[in-house]
Amino acid sequence: MIKHMLCNNCGYDMCGAEYIANTVDSSLAKEGPIYSNNVLLEMNTRPYSEIICPHCKNTGSWTT
Ligand SMILES: [Zn+2]
């Protein structure tokens, strides 16, 4: 299942690699045991309120 989310401001559909690049803070993942990708994604995902739309630069307005 591919996660994605829709910008409420411009309708931009962010998914796949771009979704991960914008939602996951990899700096949080340097220490600790090895997790599956899904667990890692859940643990390191930023709150939606902090995610900026790459298209319209609106912040924190997403539908998932
Ligand atoms: Zn947008």
Describe this structure in words.
The structure is a single chain. The chain is built from two helices and three strands. It has 64 residues and is an alpha+beta fold. It has one domain. The protein has a three-stranded antiparallel beta sheet with strand order 2-1-3. Strand 1 and strand 2 (13-15) form a beta hairpin. The longest helix is centred in the first third of the chain and has 8 residues, at 16-23. The relative contact order is 0.29. The model has no long low-confidence stretch (mean pLDDT 80). It binds zinc ion (ZN). Zinc ion is lined by residues 7, 9-10, 12, 53, 55-56, 58.
Short descriptors:
64 residues, alpha+beta, single chain, binds zinc ion
Number of strands: 3
Rg on CA atoms, Å: 12 Å
List the uncertain runs: none
Instruction: Please work out how many helical segments DSSP would assign.
Output: 2
| β-sheet strand percentage | 5-15%
Strand order, main sheet: write it out.
2-1-3
Helix-strand category: alpha+beta
Mean pLDDT over the residues: 80
The termini sit apart by 13 Å
Ligands (ions, cofactors included): zinc ion
Helix content: 25-40%
Q: Give the overall form.
A: elongated
The profile of the biggest β sheet is: 3 strands, antiparallel
Order of helical and strand elements: EEHHE
Tally of domains: 1
